[in-house]
Structure formats: structure tokens, C-alpha cells
Amino acid sequence: MAVLFTSNTLIKTRGPSALPSEETMTNTVLLGLLIGIIGSLPFDLGQRGFAKKWALLTLGQTLLWTTIILLIPMNFVGTLGGPFLILLISLAMVFNFIFCAILDAIENDRVGYSKYTYTRTSRSAIATMLSFCTLLTLTFGLSSGMFRHEEMRAFVSDHINTTSTWTDSFSAIDPAHIRTVPLEYAQWKGNKILGQSRDSLGSRYEIGDYTIQKYQDELVWVAPLEFSGFWRWRKAQTSPAYIMISAENPTDPGKIVEGLQMAYMESAYFGHDLERHVYSQGYQFHGVTDFTFEIDDGGHPWFTATLYTPTIFWSGDRVDGILLVDPETGKVEEKIGKDVPAWVDREVPCSLAISRLTWWGKYVHGFWNGLPFGANLDVNVPTSDALRKKDVQLVWDAQGNATWFTGFTSVQSTDQSLVGIALMDSRTGFTHYYSASGPDEQGVIRAVNAAVSNFRGYRGVEPIPYNIYGELAWVVPVLSQDGIIQKIAIVRGSNGMVALGADKHAALAEYRKMLQDSGSVIDPSPTGEDQIATGTIHRISPVVVNGETVFYLTLNDEDRTIFTGTVSVSPELAISREGEQVLISFTQTQDSVVTMTDFDLLSFLAKDSSGEK
Fold first, then answer.
1. Which CATH number covers residue 542?
2. Apex CA 173: angle with CA 466 and CA 566, to 5°?
3. Cα 322 to Cα 339: distance, rounded to the nearest angstrom
């Protein structure tokens, strides 16, 4: 192991050997010996021949558990060595108990007992097992909220801001960077790319888990090509590529990034299995979780994993840093604090964020108040739980920081409504909580599904919160039965009203019109006030998008901007031609394509005012 010192943090690099390190082998043997000794404690102490039986049983169990620890990646971290060590010792004691019971039965049969009787050996075995189970129960109990609820809640309550306004975390929307591609559509598009790739990659590899991340200022989905079975791995040995899909532009074809030789993968075997490789490089006694595929600013692939330490017996995990694993070389780097690269979007795993936010909301008045049969006074919990991670989304706040977002709802509420929203920084764990009302994530989906109920099989997925025209709103992609994007819905956060469009520009225009019709004040965009452009149409083209006609046009004086809108903005769009004078209202954004908020065909108005028909 090489040790590199920086000015503030110790950074360790390990590898790239695929074989277990000498340190790992030594630890494995010692752990196997420990389990063998404890698990083989003689229940017949003092009886004739007990020493020989104990020695043979200890040797056999030591070899067995050493082999298992070597083959199955496990982390021994936490009180009493952590749950894995306790589990293995428990199994070893069960084997010991069975062994002693068999010997007792043989002995009873030898001396002529008519039926099995409990000897001192059996009684000792039972007493030892009961004592160990009692210790195990106490350890689990002392890790629970019954005794440690104040410490559990402090993970968030000591690092939370509840006094700021929600616009501090949600800057006004920039249409250029709206997330409109959900995971399901990214998977569909990725499978299509893989099926059309050269060298029949689709017959030898499958696409791994997708990760959303920010790459060169754009949200993208990335996923590695994993081996599709043992024999595929044995023949290929390395993965040649990963898939990249835009999360902002549904029409972007996506791409496959080739020319790689990724040997250390989650689908590899033996020493090249990613988790086993990290485990074998000296991380047996470190908590390691959440292996995630990410790419750096240069497009180089990495696997990141969170380092953690339990602080409340076996729970209350504290994030210590991350591991960076180069899948091509197998090099493992440990990064802590500000030495974590800026392109790494997550140090706090999603499951840990859910647990912490749940503790914070559930234990507001102690353990008993938060139980299902308790008073539940002021108990608000995340709309997501360990089984509904789909309702937790990684979003980017106004400062550009990646955060875990979830709504909060009251446990006493019977409807799908919010009482607040929370954003936990995925690198630091610091949380912002804001009071809110309106439908929660599932309520938003129901509202969208009702709005598209006349389209067979259409459904909303993955609602993402945004600040749209000064109000909290949800952007919801609408998919067909096949998982293909058909429309974009924007749902008003306060009352669940839905605006639908063929794309994000049309949806924004419909949403703005909906707000205007309701008498709401429209806040300006982040890049400027509402603007007006007057000029001559240079080009105009109608495009049918998911059954709806969207008009795209440019002006002679605005040749760098493409204006878009539907007849819902103005019916005059349908009769406009090149060379005609128009007046366009729009909100300036950083996007080269902007949505028209109003459109006037000046030549048509002139004819109408002069009485011409």
C-alpha cells in the first residue's frame, strides 16, 4: 500500500492486484480462527475426551469460516465486530450445538437409554446458546430508536436549516436544463443503442445500473456495460464501453463510449468482482457501501463507494469519505473531505438519507410518540421509505449542489398531501427543510394520470420539483406503455393543476397560460425579464410531436434564437408564412430555443384594422 500525504488529508491508494493483499489474508485467517474458537467452545468441559473433540471441531470450523470469509465479501465493522461477525459466530455455535447433540444421542444409545435424555453437555449447550441470543437481542435493542432516538434524530437536527425560504434552494427555472428524461426512457434508449452497436455488443453484454449525474454542465444518465453471465465474462475479461444518455433532451440520440478495458466490474467474478476486489485490498474492517458508476469531467469511468462507521452499535452510520475505484486498473483511492473530486455527486447514499430524514421526522417527541399506535403528535415522515426509493430524487439546488429531495407528509393524514419538502446535500449531509402544501409525489402522479386518462397506457413518472415562474411546480414526463416519452406535464405545486405539452417548451407555454388565466403573478426567468421581439419571419416549420403540431420559427433580426409554440399561444401561427411581420413575446433564457408566450401576426392585424377580409 502506498501512502500519499497532502496538506490536509491522508489519501491512500491501493492495488492494482486482483489477489487479496497480505493484510487481507492475515485478517481472514485470524477471523476464521476467532470464529472457530468461540463457535467451538466445549459444552462438555471436564468430560473424558473433550479436549480432542474441541480441537478437531475448532480446526474444522476455522477452515470452514476462513474459506467462507475469503469467498464472500463481508465488512466487519461496528460493535462486537458488526452483524456479519455475530452471524458467523452464531452459525458456528449452531453447528457446535448440533455436533454435541449428535454425540449425546450416540452416547445415550451406547449406554442403553431407551430414549434421548438431556445430559450435562446438552444443558450447557442450551445455556450457552440462550446467553448468546440474549446478548444478540440486547445489541439489536440498544441500536434501536427505543434507546437511541435522540442520537438518531441529531444526525439531521444538528445539521438542518428550517428558517430560510424555499427559493434559496430553487432558483428560477432555466429551460435549457430541465430534467425531462426519466430513468425508464433512458433504459429504453440505452437498449436501442446497444442493439445497434457494432460487433454485436448486445449479445455479450448487458447494461448495468444507470446513474444520474452532472457532466460538463448537463444532466446525463450513465451506465456501464456489464457481463451477461459467467461464460461471457470468462471469454471477454473486460468491458469495452459505457452508455451516456442526455437527461435534458429526449431527442438526443445518446451514445456509447467505447475504447475502454474495464476489468473490475460488479458482474465480474473472483478477484475481479468489484466488491470483492475492494474488500481484498484491506477494507474488511471498514464500512463500504453504495457502489455507484460515475464519470469524471474528462469522461473517464469510475466506481465510487461510501466509507462509513456505525456510531450507534450497528446503526447511525457516519460518512467518513469515499473510495474511487478505477475499473480499468483496479486502483483504489480513498478521498476524505475537500479532497473528494468535484465531479463526485454523492457521498451520502440514498438509503442513508432516507433513514436520517425518517428519524428526524419520526422521533420529534421521542420514541413512543412515533409508533403506529402512539399519539403521532407533530410526526411528519418522508414520502419515501426504504421500499420506495423511487420517490427520492437526486436534484441540483440553486448553488449547483447535488441534493437528495423528498417530500414530507403527516402520518395522521389520509390524503396524498405535503406538509414540507427536504433537500439533503448528498456530499455533506446538511439539510434544508421548507414548509409546503399541495399534493405529494404520488398525488402529482395521480393528477397527471388523470389528465392523460384519454390516452390509453399513458402515465406520469419521476416528478422533479422546480421553481417555475415563482411557484413550486413539478415537471413530469409522460410515457407510453412502451416507456417512450409522449408528453411533458407541469403540475402546479399548490393545487395540482396540470399543464400538458408535446415538449418542455410547449408545456412551459401552457403552464404560463394556465397561471395567467388564474390571475397569478408571473415572476421573471433567471436570465432576464419578459421580452418582445419584432421582425420578419425568416423560416417557419410545423413539426408534429406526439400528435401535437409545434411551430418553430426564426426572425431575420434574431437568427440565433429559435422560437417555438403551439396554436394555444396564438391561432395565427397556423397561417403565418416566411416574410411576414410578427411581434413575439417571450422570456429570455440561456437556451437557444425559447418558448413564445404570445404571438401576433402584424400583417394580419393590419388587414383586420383596415377592414380587409
1. 2.40.50.140
2. 100
3. 10
pLDDT value at 2 more than 50? no
**Domain assignment present for 553:** yes
Enumerate the H helices of 119-229 as residue ranges.
120-142, 145-157, 183-195
| pLDDT value of residue 303 | 98
- Are 130 and 57 in the same domain? yes
Asked whether residue 7 is assigned to any structural domain, the reply reads no
Same domain, 68 and 215: no
Most confident residue range from 115-129, 146-160, 184-198 = 184-198
Pairing of strands 459-460, 431-435: unpaired
Q: Are 573 and 445 within one domain?
A: no
Region of residue 277 (phi > 0: left; psi between -120 and 50: alpha; otherwise: beta):
alpha
232 and 377 inside one domain: no
The whole-angstrom separation of Cα 46 and Cα 152 is 47
Helix (H, G, I), strand (E, B), or coil: what is residue 42? Answer: coil
Quote the number of domains for the chain.
5
Residue 613, pLDDT score: 39
Domain that holds residue 468: 441-517
pLDDT at res. 122: 60
Helices (H) and strands (E) in the chain, counts: 12, 27
| pLDDT of amino acid 607 | 58
- Enter the pTM of the model: 0.83
Domain-located, residue 69 = yes
Give yes or no: residues 137 and 18 share one domain.
yes
CA distance 498 to 489: 7
* Rounded Cα gap, residues 466 and 179, in angstroms: 10
Number of Cβ within 10 Å of residue 287's Cβ equals 20
Q: For 220-257, how does the pLDDT look when each residue is reduced to its tens digit (9 = 90+)? A: 999 999 999 999 999 999 999 999 999 999 999 999 99
Q: Please report, for residues 244, 266, 409, 552, the alpha-carbon distance to residue 378 in angstroms, rounded to integers and kept in the order given.
A: 44, 43, 10, 51
Q: Map 562-587 to HEC letters.
A: EEEECCCCCHHHHHCCCCCEEEEEEE
> pLDDT tens digits for 342-373?
999 999 999 999 999 999 999 999 989 888 88
Instruction: Give yes or no: residues 315 and 195 share one domain.
Output: yes
What is the rounded average pLDDT of the residues 605-609? 57
Is the pLDDT at 534 greater than 80, yes or no? Answer: yes
Sequence-ordered list of residues with C-beta below 8 angstroms from that of 377, at least 6 positions apart, any chain: 364, 365, 369
Q: Are residues 411 and 558 in the same domain?
A: no
**For cell 397527471, what's the residue?**
448
Measured CA to CA, the distance from residue 193 to residue 432 in angstroms comes to 39
Could you tell me if 79 and 210 lie in one domain? no
pLDDT cut 90: percent of the chain above it = 48
